[in-house]
Amino acid sequence: MTHVSYHISNLLEKMTSTDKDFRFMATNDLMMELQKDSIKLDEDSEKKVVAMLLKLLEDKNGEVQNLAVKCLGPLVNKVKEYQVETMVDTLCSNMMSEKEQLRDISSMGLKTIIAELPSSSSGLNLTVSVCKKITAQLIGAIGKQDDVSVQLEALDILSDMLSRLSGTLLSFHASILDSLLPQLTSPRLAVRKRAIIALSHLVACCNSALFSQLMEHLLAELSPGKVTSATRTYLQCLATVSRQGGHRIGEHLEKIIPLVVKYCGVEDDELREHCFQAFEAFVRRCPKEMSCHISTIIKLCLKYITYDPNYNYDAEEDEDESMDIEDDDQGSDEEYSDDDDMSWKVRRSSVKCLEAVVSTRRDLLLELYGSVAAALVGRFKEREENVRTEIFLAFISLLRQTRPLQGSPQPGDKEDPALTLLKKQVPTIVKALHRQLKEKSIKSRQGCFSLLTELAGVAPGILGDHIPALIPGIVYSLTDKSTSSNMKIDALSFLYVLLCNQSPDAFHPHISVILPPVVLCIEDPFYKITSEALLVTQQIVKILRPLEKPQSSTFDTRPYVKDLFAATLKRLKAADIDQEIFLERLKNEITRLTTVKALTLITASPLKIDLRPVLPEGVQILGSFLRKNQRALKLSTLTALTVLVTNYSDSLKPPMMESVVNELPALISENDMHVSQMAITLLTSMTKVCPSSLTKIGSNVLPEVLNLVHSPLLQGGALGAILEFFQVLVVTKASNIGYNELLKALTGPFYGSEKSRNTMPMHRQSYYSVAKCVAALSTTCPNEASAMINNFVQEVKSPKSSESTRILSFLCLGEVGRCMNLGGQKELKTIILEAFSSPHEEIKTAASYALGNICVGNLKEYLPFMLKEIGSQQKRQYLLLHSLKEVISASSAESLMPHVEEIWALLFKHCECAEEGTRNVVAECLGKLTLVNPSQLLPRLKKQLSSGSPHSRSTVVTAIKFTIVDQPQPIDALLKDCIGDFLKTLQDPDLNVRRVALVMFNSAAHNKPALIRGLLSSVLPFLYNETQIRKELIREVEMGPFKHTVDDGLDVRKAAFECMYTLLDSCLDCLDIFEFLNHVEEGLKDHYDIRMLTFIMLARLSSLSPSAVMQRLDRLVEPLRATCTTKVKAGSVKQEFEKQEELRRSAMRAVAALLSIRDIEKSTAMADFASQIRSNAEMSSIFESIQKDDSTSGITETMDTS
């Protein structure tokens, strides 16, 4: 006998003891053993344990019985299948027992077993077998009308099974439905309610035929119109089923709605409550199908939110007009309560229904402000606390819908009409809440603060005129002895938002009232209250002494500073006021990051706080932080050191800074460009104010900076930081590094021997980076630059120069020429034009870039020359147009203005060029030139749309794309008025014009969605039209013995689907998601490229609109299944296998996203597909690898469509 078996035998022997304590301890020990993963029972032990536990269920001691039930859970996965079936059989039999205690404990046992049954494919056979045994007996038990307690237990267990394991009961769904429907007419209310719960779990996963059968039954029972005792039950069932059944109720709504509306008129409060609960479910689950009924529902809700026949609100208002907070002790809500008054349930359900309308129908926002907003504000006086809370929540939903969708509005934008309507109602809202803020009810006050916080966030400054009315309520909630912790936190949160969004002057009169309770909150023992109070204190400090205008304020801050400082310092450290606190906190691993940030703020303060006593040790500690493997700490430390170096340069000695300089080389690397940028910015500051600290940078820091310059990843902020560093370095001559030394170090790698260049070829990006560095040095040292310019000219002239040398020389001449006038180099034009004939494409591109940039620095001489060449040199046109593009992009509007007409005329001569590449460059030039003088040039582009040439129209539309940039521009207002005319090209007969129109539309949706939001209703049909496969655009091409299919419409469809993806992020609220999904569904069956896009879109939709995706799941699953199960034909080329593999992985990512939707397992189609994936080794392997990738990266797959 094994050790485990011996131990189990001993326990089983003790369980037969006559002493209940022995039995209890033995059963408890057995439970502990069964919970161990390592335990393995032999067949004999299994049999004995199961028999003993079933016997203990009938033990005389209740505690032993309960422990025996708890043992059944872990036992399910430790014994063989037939032993579980034995347990289930015994428990089901016991449920029919005459003994009530045995029935109850057996019911608990069955629930415990059901909770532990495996839902994964590995244990599915056991689950199916057990569920079938239980279900058959439960159906019989439910039919036992003579024993209600058996019925109730059976219904409970059935609900548990249906909610967790419904997929295994598909064969029983019909018989379960047949057994549940009669229970809706049971004389016992508890039976009816539990039958409704079981039905709600059944409809979540039953097939459409059964769902229709249930709906037809409910409609048949409700149709006669007579109110019987069962009518409430049927309406309650309808509401519950609608919540769980979701979209499937939609096809029955036309029959249901008139019935429910009719029952709202019946004088029965409970019936009305069920009616509004049904309406709420319909609105949330079937928003599209409910559109035509929304106005009716709003009218009914508005009628019944004031339905309170037993109470006179006007009398209360007259009575309370002069009441103070102190007098509230006599009046309380309980005074008006009436056990028989159920009208509050009607009001609550009607308000919740209104909230559902508000939160799902943003398109009706203006109408809701016209009809619903005032009604909700009028009901803030509601006497029932539960109803009042729902009213606040409904109004908060209205405020959330009013928030601007695309960040803060830009200057010049028209105010949202809904916001205008809200502002008109603010005085009424504050007046209504003013009284509520004095209420004893904590729940009501919390609701008020939640609403006010949301209101303050909708439009900053909206509460500015009402601060005097709000302050007493805030102070009361912070000082009242009966106030809960959550109440204080909510009051402080609102005060923080209020302080952030108002001008300091508005609060100065109230500081004396606000500050004492806030200071008390700082000292509160509960850390969350302290944290909120410190945030408020932070804003109060900004109000006491605003940095924007510290001298102009006449407000005397002296009475308040001492209290604030003392309270804050006490929290920082219970010690005397001392700068040493910073050193202590810097040494503490938990507080060091926050301390570094605080030190940065203090160092940068215009108050010039003296930190010299802590600098020697502080700088050394900060230097050590640069070694830590914590990115946030490194970045904050670099920022702090930069500010320290800038503001305390006279106190920083070279030995003190040595520890910092020694850490910098390791931070300058292409592995983290942002850290590199911050490190180089610190170097620049040190070079400016204390160059003596940098005597050794030539050997340790500078090589790392030069490596970064030659990195292909260098761009943006990091490059800008390097340019400034080099400029400061050559001016200060720190470490004796001058212009020539730096120039040699930068360009040296490009002048090496041919052999070394071939070993380590330089990336093309590094040529441009080095050229910018050379230009930055040359503008700083113009006297030394002339020799360098001559040298570069000689390099590009010499036939002996290598290709890399000539490319670098051209780029350097271009960058230098942008900043300096190279008019003295007379032969430069000829040299560049000759380079246009080079056999090397890279040299031609560099020469084109050089010409454009040299022209920027000398427009007067070079622009006429360039325009003349464009007009006369057909072969060099493309390169010359690229040069012109550089000129337009880099020159100021003022310098270009005199030449606009000449350039414009020249460009339009080439906008009908047959070569698409040339037309694209022309379009970019036109778009960027339009930004120079939009009021004059945009109408000309619009006029050109009527051109008869498709090439011309496509060029104009592409030009508009280049006028749409992500930063605000003067053209935006003009563009908003006329972009609709350009979008009409989506209907152009020419395929290419429609494609570029879609690209332009995508650019607008991505960069400036406000331009196109108002036009979507008219534009979307044409966008969706372009997603269709057109057979007339598909042709066969013969390639030798093979025939190849070419789809000329593919690029247009890709552009259309890319637009759709962009709209998901920028204009989701303007889309009819169900119409959108129709086209996504078609895309799932399209070409490889389209399917890849739609898989990503489907994953995105799973998080953005899960309920809509759930409604379409049956139709979406099949294309996914088809992709995942398709196999490439044997003998296909390698690329076909790779494409199919990528498709499957992308489809699996979409499946993973779908499976993250709540309640997705209740979809039969999705459950079947998930089971198929688990049971197929290949698909299961792909799925698991994708889940692993997602968990490690934490990044959702996205698509760049900009």
TrEMBL record:
Task: Cite the repeat ranges for HEAT.
Answer: 49-87
Q: Which domain of life is it from?
A: Eukaryota
Region annotated Disordered, chain positions: 316-340
Q: Do the record's keywords include Disulfide bond?
A: no
By its UniProt entry, which InterPro entries does this protein fall under? ARM-like, ARM-type_fold, CAND1/CAND2, HEAT_type_2, TATA-bd_TIP120
Q: Where is the TATA-binding protein interacting (TIP20) domain?
A: 1011-1173
Q: What Gene3D superfamilies does this protein map onto?
A: Leucine-rich Repeat Variant
Q: Keywords in UniProt for this one? A: Repeat, Ubl conjugation pathway
Pfam families under this entry?
A: TIP120, TPR_CAND1
* Biological process according to GO: SCF complex assembly
Q: Which family does it belong to?
A: Belongs to the CAND family.
Q: What is the name attached to this protein's record?
A: Cullin-associated and neddylation-dissociated 2 (putative)
